[in-house]
Amino acid sequence: MAGVNPFRKRHEGGQGPAAGARSRDETAPVPADPTAPVRRGRVRATIAAIADRIIEIAPRIPVRDLATLRAQFPGLTPEELADKLVAGACAGTATVGAGVGAAAMLPVPPAMPAELATEIIGVAVIELKLIAELHEVYGLRPPGNLRQRAMAVLTSWTEERGIDVAKPASVNAALGGQMKRELRQQIMKRTLRNLPSLTPFMVGATVGGVMNRRDTRKVAKKIRRDLRAKQVPWDALPDALPASPPPGPAPLPPAD
Question: Of 6, 59, 112, 207, which residue is 20 to 30 A from 100 by alpha carbon distance?
């Protein structure tokens, strides 16, 4: 039996590829994208820059102490006050997500990396403020100066757990390189979660707001579970009640 000839004679007597035969170019393997390492490097650099920015901003986030919170929300129990703080933070992060998602549908949308960085930093500031004030509500303010407390709150945010104020070593460790590595990992996770908020045609605004609200509530639930186990009653805290109403809300950090 004659073998299959991959070439057939054309009508004019020449040779050409048989029907269904694939050219060498079609069967050649697809070369790897030479720009992939460059893109990965840019992503890592962007995440590192966002992490450094959050670390820089953290000590300047205005945090209300327990006396101020009790003056602003009189008559509430610790759990009721914590509920108020969580609801306010969820509304804030939802607004940030919806705003960035809406910007993505503009006829000439802003640069997406810049918009995503804005959302990550905006949400981080709201959640860091929430975590610090939840520690106040449960009588567990971290020890140390302003920067040490801010770094401890950053660690709590990255690990999604309450601060163990009985272990000063855990607060001091927050100033090390391990915290920065964990912070970058947390930012990478949030970046991947926030990508749907940049979906155009207004879907992004809705999805971004819902996802941010859900994620903030989830973080708050984990933090509160840890804090309840070590909670210090208000009547056991020195100077728990304010002597007079506070002089108004704390100023926002100066814009760069």
Answer: 59
Asked if 163 and 132 count as a contact pair (C-beta separation under 8 A), the reply is no
The answer to whether the CB of 66 falls within 8 A of the CB of 237 is yes
Regions of the chain with pLDDT less than 70: 1-41, 43, 97-113, 115, 166-176, 190-209, 239-256
Rounded to whole angstroms, how far apart are CA atoms 68 and 241? Answer: 9
Beta bridge mates, 15: 9
Q: Give the C-alpha distances (Å, rounded to integers) separating 229 from 103, 130, 136, 211.
A: 42, 18, 15, 28
**Token code pair at residue 123:** 């949400």
Give whole-number Cα distances, 80 to 6, 31, 77, 245, in Å. Answer: 80, 60, 5, 20
Share of the chain above pLDDT 70, in %: 56
Helix (H) or strand (E) holding 9: strand 7-9
Separation between Cα atoms, residue 116 and residue 205, nearest integer Å: 13
